[in-house]
Amino acid sequence: MKFRVERDVLAEAVTWTARTLPTRPPAPVLAGVLLDADASGVLGLASFDYEVSARAQVPADVSEPGRALVSGRLLAEISRALPDKPVDVVLEGSKITMTCGASRFTLLTMPVEDYPALPSMPETSGSVSGDDLTHAVAQVSVAASRDDTLPSSRVSAWRSRARR
């Protein structure tokens, strides 16, 4: 596997997929982000813990297609710290080498064959324009409470009245 991708694009996609990673995974491979470089010029990133999955696809210059599984949190930290230059990623045996400007990082890979099969995406049930969604959210966001204690205090008050 060998590809080149813009740093900001990579950092955003890795951050998106890594945020669903469990803090204490039941299996080490579930702490990983699956990188899938496609010959069509698409880099897919995915995470999955048997309950929640996240996927992202970004454009990349793919020289050699392939798949690799690396530590998601470590990849997220590294991708955010890279300079604002294109990132070259190469799979060499059981290691991935990331080169960006003068920075160079090596990450150990995990066995891709141990990673669980990702669930299929559900069918689209509808669509709405971004402007319409923004307008709708703006109308109801004023009713959202910023008080984290409000729901629990309402439940506590209801329970104390129910006991009387």
Automatic annotation (TrEMBL):
The name this protein carries in UniProt is DNA polymerase III beta sliding clamp N-terminal domain-containing protein
**InterPro entries in the record, alphabetically?**
DNA_clamp_sf, DNA_polIII_beta, DNA_polIII_beta_N
- Where is region (Disordered) located? 140-164
Which locations, inside or outside the cell, does it occupy?
A: Cytoplasm
Compositional bias, Low complexity, is annotated for 152-164
Q: Where is the DNA polymerase III beta sliding clamp N-terminal domain?
A: 1-119
Identify the domain of life: Bacteria
Protein family per UniProt: Belongs to the beta sliding clamp family.
Grouped into one coarse class, the protein's main location is: cytoplasm
Q: Does the keyword Magnesium apply?
A: no
The alphabetized UniProt keywords are: Cytoplasm, DNA replication, DNA-binding, DNA-directed DNA polymerase, Nucleotidyltransferase, Transferase
